[in-house]
Amino acid sequence: MRSERAEIQRFGTFEVDVRSGELRRQGVRIKLQEQPFHVLTVLLQRPGEVVTREELRSQNWPADTFVDFDNSLNTAINKLREALGDSADNPRFIETLPRRGYRFIAPVTGVDGAAGGTAAGVSAVTPIRGRKIAVTAAVVVLASGIAGGLLWRTRQARHLTEKDTIVLGDFANSTGDAVFDGTLREGLSVELEQSPFLSLVPEKQIHQTLRMMGKNTSARLTPEIAQEVCQRTSSAAELDGSIALIGTRYNLILKAVNCASGDLLASTEAQVDDKSHVLDALGKAASEMRRKLGESLSSTQKYNTPLEQATTPSLEALQAYNLGRLALAHGEDAAALGFFQRATQLDPNFAMAYWGMSQSYNGETTLAVEIGRKAYGLRERLSEFERLRIECDDPSGDVMKAMRSCELGAKTYPRDALFHQDLALYSDALGRYETGLKEKLEAVRLAPYDGHFCRTVIYAYLLLNRVQEAEAAAKEACAKAVDANSETILYLVAFYRDDHAEMARQAARAVGVPGDEDSMLSAEADTAAYFGHLGKARELTRRAAESAELAAEKETAATYYATSALREALFGNVDRARQQATLAKGRASGRDVDYGLALALAYAGDANRARVLADGLGRRFPEDTTLQLTYLPTLRAKLALVRSNPQQAVDILRVAAPYELGLSALSGYNWPSLYPVYVRGEAYLAAHQGKEAAAEFQRILDHRGIALNEPIGALAHLQLGRAYSLQGDTAKARAAYQDFLTLWKDADPDIPVFKEAKAEYAKLQ
After folding, report:
1. Which residues of 317-355 are buried (b: 16+ CB within 10 A; e: fewer)?
2. pLDDT attached to residue 751
3. pLDDT given for residue 482 in this prediction
4. Is 55:97 a contact under the CB 8 Å cutoff?
5. SS3 category, 169
6. DSSP 3-state assignment of 294?
7. DSSP state, residue 660
8. Do residues 229 and 201 touch, judged by C-beta distance below 8 A?
9. Where are the domains of the chain?
10. Above 50 in pLDDT, residue 161?
11. What is the Cα 125 distance to its own chain's centre?
12. 734 with 754: CB under 8 angstroms?
């Protein structure tokens, strides 16, 4: 019996068979590597006693073994705790004594129920019952001491402040059920994100930090790695959790650790009887953690949507959503889309999964808007943070309504960069560029690691004709953003400065880069057309469209052909314009695509088809601010000019006046900019009002950072010459014509508008 007792020992629901080298829980074998198992057997030999690290080394690592002992022992202890579902901060089995060693604190018995080991102050010949009482009492006292110590440490630890940030680590999952992997971290993230008090370090910043640490961006955020990320990001705390299956109950533990000192700031625990209630338990534990970290009771009560309601009751759907979010953070839009689609298949009412899908449709604005409507329709059940996020991205296109949600979001969650970024984009759409710049700078301050925000700051300065500050932003603001990928915007900065060598260098950098190559080719096509190289522009447009189609971006490809059609029509190539319009129409439809097609057809003299497209747009987007106040007035004014009614065109365009300098495109390709101004200038020319026409075309030239390399930026010089000619100011007319002809000195000779310009200029001599 003594031999059997020594070979088989029990504690809690576990049983250790030293002879076979097995750890079992309720008869089921638990996989445990050899080294952690040996450490366990040493600790079990002396329950209740301190076993020093040197003693563990001498019994488990021979003197002639050359290993990093400290790391090896730490790894063994961590794996052992993971197998037992134990926690270093709330130990039930293995207690750590800093700088000394470890102690097994749970009662240990043999197969006959006899307690193993001896307790201080108790005779070895004490009757079994007496030993049981003594050991139990010692364990109770020890547990009370540990609990008291943890409570004291928690009370002594300072609360977080509204300036602190938190790194969210991964969950240790010892249940053997893979559905919890990543899922619980995602659920905890959703719960904490609805807090206006706490602020999580975003995934993009974590990925950037992992790269700086020489680690893969998909590396598990173990407590050790998360703590280093926490220190590198100057965060205040690292928060992680664990889940274990103890018998038939799931045990959840959350703990927050001070990154600098390693001290425990707070911990919470929850138990549930079945898997279907794990998310509910996680939400309650997270809510308690928020209070322990310093958030006010009123805040936790106000912003505390139940986790299953804010996300989904389906663990599988939440797991797919988590994988989608990670893929999106890595810039893997196609993979993200697949995961989000899987999440909505598992739970058709998963609002944020639909929103994630809408963010994954890179360049496909129509699909993004359609799926965004599904998310919008389900928003009322979400947390305040997620509801405002969706409302800030209002799929109806009502800019004013969306801005109100963005402003509330920025006020409630002032440390979230996306609310400021969206406010900036809406400000740009209305032509309020100074306001937009202010919001973009705030977004970059909050998220300096995000290359997208950095690019928008460069562009903001360009829109304001502040090109030197744009260049400075590229060098300074983008220095911290590892995913800047700013070739196209830097190409446009170089265009503004007439630096053709730099333009060529940036274009070369984008070759073969998915997502960048097509936009760069399109920018080069616009530049070629700007200088009258129309044949080259056609070829570059074809290549841009093919590149977009290879990336499964049909709407983007259609946009390139639609802008090509408009370009041909503006230059007087009616047949070419209709041909390019057909190529666009055969690929995709969308708000901006159809606007470009309608405008091209109007310039090509096909008024009926243009009117049909315009009417269709009005019916499809009744609340869209840009469409109703900019696109449709421009189209209807141009159609009035086709009917030789310039005064009606001027009257129609009055509604567009407050917004006509804005960036109206849904995508980053803002080719529709300034067309209301250009068409109004044409209307004044048709009405023989030279002074008024000159003022409109001069506005385009004065806003070179908006017009950039779009065709009307070049044609404005020619139209200005025509306006001065109407006024009888020959000197100014000649100067304007010369500016245009200088730009087009190497232009293709067969372009109709080029022939007209040369003939008109000759008459002025």
Report:
1. bbbbbbbbbbbbbbbebebbbbbbbbbbebbeebbbbbb
2. 97
3. 58
4. no
5. strand
6. coil
7. T
8. yes
9. 2-153, 157-310, 623-765
10. yes
11. 67
12. no
Number of Cβ atoms within 10 Å of the Cβ of 514 = 13
Residue 589, helix vs strand vs coil = coil
Query: For the structural domain made of 623-765, what CATH number should be given?
Result: 1.25.40.10
State whether the Cα torsion 360-365-370-374 is positive or negative.
Answer: positive
| Euclidean distance between CA atoms 259 and 321, whole angstroms | 29
> Which CATH code of 1.10.10.10, 3.40.50.720, 1.10.3120.10, 3.40.50.2300 fits the domain covering 2-153?
1.10.10.10
> What angle in degrees, to the nearest 10, is found between the helix axes of 351-360 and 315-329?
30
Q: Give residues with Cβ within 8 angstroms of 326, minimum separation 6.
A: 182, 203, 218
User: What does the alpha-carbon distance between residue 482 and residue 359 come to, in Å, rounded to a whole number?
Assistant: 21
- What does the alpha-carbon distance between residue 558 and residue 401 come to, in Å, rounded to a whole number? 29
Write the CB contacts of 602 (distance below 8 Å, at least 6 apart in sequence).
Answer: 610, 635, 638, 639, 642
In sequence order, the β-bridge partners of residue 443 are none
Q: With the C-alpha atoms ordered 752, 757, 758, 760, is the resulting torsion angle positive or negative?
A: positive
Structure token digits, residue 345? 């298949």
Tokens of 246: 């103890």
Q: Give mean pLDDT, residues 361-366.
A: 81
Check whether 123 has a pLDDT greater than 60.
no
Strand-strand pairing, 264-272 and 249-258: antiparallel
Quick one: pLDDT at residue 66? 42
Q: Which residue has the tokens 């963010």?
A: 359
The CATH classification number of 157-310 equals 3.40.50.10070
- Tokens at 309, concatenated: 């309601």
pLDDT band at 137 (very low <50, low <70, confident <90, very high): very low
Sign of CA dihedral 357, 359, 361, 367: positive
* Burial class for 763, CB neighbours closer than 10 Å (0-12, 13-18, 19+): exposed
pLDDT average, residue stretch 337-342: 95
Residues in the chain: 765
Q: In this structure, what token pair is assigned to residue 385?
A: 């943070």
What percent of the chain has a predicted confidence (pLDDT) above 90? 67
Q: Say how far apart CA 356 and CA 467 lie, in whole Å.
A: 35
Written as six digits, the tokens of 7 are 């070979």
Q: What is the per-residue DSSP string for 91-128?
A: -SSEEEETTTEEEE-S--B-TTSPBPS--TTS-TTS-H
The pLDDT of residue 484: 52
Crossing angle, helix 632-642 and helix 607-620, to 10 degrees?
160
For the chain, the helix, strand and coil percentages under 3-state DSSP, each to the nearest 5? 60, 10, 30
Phi, psi of 311 (to 5 degrees): -120, -95
What is this structure's pTM?
A: 0.78
